[in-house]
Amino acid sequence: MLKLFTGSANPLLSEQVSKLLKVPLSNSEVVRFDNSEVRVSIKEKVKNDTCVVIQPTSNPTDTHLMELFFFADALKRGQAKEIIAFIPYFGYARQNREHLKGEAVSVNVVVRFLETIGFNSVYTISLHDEGTEGIFSITFKNLNAFNILGREVAYYLKNNKNAEEVAIVSPDQGGVERAQIFAENFFHSNKVDIAVIEKRRNLEKIHQSKALNLYGKVRNKTCIIIDDIITSGGTLVHAAEFCLKRGAKRVLACIVHHDFSPNAKEILAKSPIEKIFMSNSISLKTGQKFRQLEEISIAPLIAQEIKNLL
Description:
The chain is an alpha/beta fold. The chain has helices spanning 11-21, 61-77, 106-117, 146-157, 176-187, 234-245, 264-269, 299-309, and strands at residues 2-6, 28-32, 38-42, 50-54, 82-87, 121-125, 139-143, 166-170, 194-201, 209-215, 222-230, 250-258, 275-279, 293-296. The protein folds into 2 domains: 2-144 and 299-309, Rossmann fold (3-Layer(aba) Sandwich), CATH 3.40.50.2020; 146-280, Rossmann fold (3-Layer(aba) Sandwich). The model has no long low-confidence stretch (mean pLDDT 91).
């Protein structure tokens, strides 16, 4: 039997998945004590069941990770047959290499925890670096949210969807492949020009980067900037401003995860970006919504993948 559990990071997304599957969320309890410790309890029998836990490991990342680990341990003690983690947003994914001498490669540590704590498989959505998949020794699958987001962008553009009128833009060199895949799926053709922003990131100061140049044709076009994560919003806004300076008619953005820093809403709300399409992989905090933000549910993507497991 399938048992579906939700952590505390994004219960609304879990409820949407539950409704699509017509499988009720199983009973569990997450208690946070005044000393910051967390206790996870499974409140029903799970012996010989396949148990799925939905928990993005977004801010506060460490707290949500520990909660996820405790779910695995509790389910393992309850003799669940299989324990599956659905992590819509995979925290620490950007710490995937030693950027500066002496740094930990933090994503490796998180992967080792997930493997040893009791999970049989892990699913995530639009992982920052697909190369991280090779670290796992248990079953791992990276789902693509851009198909769902792309449909919403296409509907928004309606009759203005062709390669002559639209430019797909990567806000940095590292996202070129992501932008190419989006463009091919969006236009159903590989004959699409990709514009790229040359960016320099300040490794000594977090959330700071500078756009240096733009390569590609954007003049008189609708630009769609493609990226996996927004944190401060600086990279995205700089890219949009560069496109407009080079003659773009308007700028949209299609981003999977809104991992917002405290000032992100203010930066993005004042930006010249017409519309920002994002998934609900991370639960928006109070006061984080703004006019340009269009949030699209990825519950159908998760629900379909769970159906495939049955």
